[in-house]
Structure formats: C-alpha cells, structure tokens
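A reminder before we start the practical. When you read a complex entry, don't treat the lines as separate problems. The point of joint prediction is that each chain is placed relative to the others, so the output describes one connected object in space. Small molecules and nucleic acid strands, if listed, are placed in the same frame. In the example below there are two entries. Take a minute to note the order of the lines before looking further.
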Amino acid sequence: MGAGAARGMGGLTLGAPGVRATARIVATPEGLPVLEGEGPLALRRTRARGPYHRVTVVGAMSAPLGGDRIAVEAEVRDGARLDVDSAAATIALPGRDGGRAHYDVRLTVGEGAELRWLPEQLISAHGSDLAMRTRIDLAAGARLVFREEQVLGRHGEAPGTLATRLTVHRAGRPLLDQELAYGPGAPGGWDGGAVLGGHRAAGQLLVVGPEFSERPAETGLLGESAVLTPLAGPGFLVTAVAPDARLLRRTLDDVLHAHLATR
Amino acid sequence: MSRAALLVLADGRFPAGGHAHSGGAEPAVKAGRIRDAADLAEFCRGRLHTAGLTSAALAAAAAAGLDPLALDEAADARTPSPALRATARKLGRQMMRAARATWPSAELDALAAARPRGAHQPIVLGLAARAAGLGPEDAAHCVAYEVVSGPATAVVRLLSLDPFDATAVLARLAPELDAVARRAALAAAEAVVEGLDALPAASAPLLDVMAEAHAAWPVRLFAS
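Here is the predicted structure of the whole assembly.
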C-alpha cells in the first residue's frame, strides 16, 4: 500500500520508522481558508478573541514518539491576526525503535499581521529523544508573541533527551537564533551552573513588533533565574529557568499579561 | 599554518583585554553555582558546548572568509543579552587593536571601518587568524580554549581555588575542546555552502540571566 492510499484512509502516513504528519493553518483577515490536521495532529477552530482567529491544537498531538516526524505550519497573511494554543501539554515519549523524533514548526507572519503562538509545555519523558525545530519568518511590519516551555521529565522522573532550535528572521535578516539541549543525550555540562543549574523547566517568551524600533524594551531581571532582554532588532526575549513548570509559567505569564495589556 | 602564530593568538597574555572578564564565573560564584573544582568543571563544560561552540563557529566562519558583517548580524541574533552583546563588541574592539598591530590586513581594516565601536570578538579573532595564516579550525580552537580558560583563571581569584586544580579542569576538558573546535569548523564549512543558518546557535539560559544581573552590580571584580 502506497503512502497516498494510507493518507486517504485517515490522514496518517504510516511506515517505518514512525508517523509522518503535517498540519497546516492559513489565516487571512477574512478567515481560515486552510485548516488541515493530519494523523495525530488535530486542529480546531475555537472561540475567537476580538479580531483574532483562534485555533487550538487538540488531543493526540501529545505524543511524538521516537521515529515520528511531525510538523505544524502556520501562515498568517498580510493584515490577519491569529491566536494558536493547545489543549494540553505535548509529551515526548520513547519510540518503539528508540529512534529520535522530529517536530518541526514553521511560521510565517505577513505585513501588518500578528501571530500569538502560545501552546502548552513540551514535556520530555524519561527515555524519549526529541529534536524540535522552529523557524519563524516575519515581515518587517509583522507582530509576534511566541512562547515555548520545556519541562525535563514528568513529575519526579529523570528527563529524556531534548534538543530545540528557534530561528527567527525578520525582513529576511536574522533576529534571534537559540539552540538548547538537555538530558542524557545532550553535550556535557547542561545541568551545570552555566546552563540549567539543576532547574527542571526552561522557557522563552519572544515578543516582536515594529513599535520596538523606536522604543526598545528595557532590560529587567525577573527574580533569580529569569531575565527580559531587548534584542538587537525590534523585540524582546524573556529567558527563564525554574524548578518546575508552574513556577516557569508564572514568570512568563507576568510579562505576557503586561504586554497584552498594552495592545 | 604556523603553529607558533596559533600560540601567540591563543596566549592569555595576548593584549586583547580578555583577562578582565570572568566569562560569567563571577556571578556564578556569587550565586553559589560554583563552589569547588567540580562545579567549575561543569560550568566550563556547559559554557564550552553552548556559547563556546557558537562563538567558535563564528570565528571559524570568519577565518574561512565568510562576510564578517553578515556574521556580526548572526552573532547579534545568537546573543539575546545586551550585556553580552556589549561585552562581545568591547572585546572585539580590543582584539581589533591588537590584531591590526600584530597581523595587519585589509580585511581587518575594512571591518574596523565598518564597525568602529567593535564587531563581535570571535569574528575579529577569526579575521586575525586568517591574517596570521591560520585556518578555521585554529580560530575555533582559540575561541573554545578562551571560553573555558577565562572562567578557570577567574575562579582561582574569586574562590582562592588552587591554580593546579583549575589547570587540571582545563586539561581534562582538552578532548572536548578538540571536538568542539572540529564541530565548529565543520559547521563553518557547511555555512559556506548553505548560508549562515547552518552555524550553531547553542545557548545557555543561566549565562544570559547572570550576565544581566552582573552588569547591574555597582562593584565587581571582573567586567563580565
């Protein structure tokens, strides 16, 4: 049975070594002309907030297994506003074959458009191995609010191996590029005093908008293990580590809510 | 290549201002994250595989002849902390002065003219290596070594750590230093073909947090 036939039967492309699935969202000022889940990735149009179209990633997305290759693509066209969240945390689990899973996120935001990408945490379960790659291309006049949080191990559990990369370009030029690697398969020193220092949750909140060209954000320390820093380009990044997911979210939420209140 | 030129460039006494910087060790000591030689080893190892790899690859790419101004922009994108961007440019300016006196080159002159307030230090070092007849992996080695020798030297002063213990930490990291330099040079070779996104962007959250905290201290022993 070919890949096309498998897809026709229910959206899954099965076969060694794992699941391959891509979900796609296209937002325009008028609506969501493309909203396609695939396989374990299901997308739901949910109640909009003001002028924002809202999409929630639901259900079975919560398990990239070793060997899987899953991807989400969102294109926010000129002037559109899109809010994306998820119904539950994503849990990376060990695969049947012990292979590495890949999760790719590709986001494009056009002129005068805005994307708020606020999913729940990514949890790296013991024995899992996940590479997550996020690539964001912003037009010069695009706005972005982007959060990602990594939790190392479920409650009381040793972490799996997790490697993430977040690459953001604005008007075709690099704006932010950050790679993080934790767990038994990461290079040494990841839990030492330079990187995590024993913390088990790490996160980033990135906010980009043309207004920061004239009025850059001010650097701010957020307690002992988090900081808000203005980027070289028009935006700011919150970098935070915390003992657990709840404390991490509290730190990021303080900044998120303060930012959203200004919009 | 000239092995002696590599020694001159990598020497801690090369007058490029590096001795005034702890590489994040000063705030890490204050926060209790470095208390002994074992903590220092984990700190250095973590810095080597994150900021070290990223900087070593930028240096290798500059030594390989990639556009230094595009690399400077890539370095900014890889440095979200304004305190660390300022430090990198300040060290870049000092490295530029020393390098132009040591190995004069048109490429160094052009970068100095384009970035009078300083380019990111690893890029200047990469161009200096190139002017000295060294290769991309040599430049990566210099940066990788400096990324761990800075904190090790600083911790001797900050904690009164036995200098023999600090040097033993560096010696034990040698195989990892070689591996990071090799990886950085490979990434630079990839970037020649695929563009600068092929360069690593490994980062360390606590280094960024502590750099901003440290920059706000009223009194400190080290500049960064």
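Discuss with your neighbour: Chain B has a mean pLDDT of 97. What might explain this?
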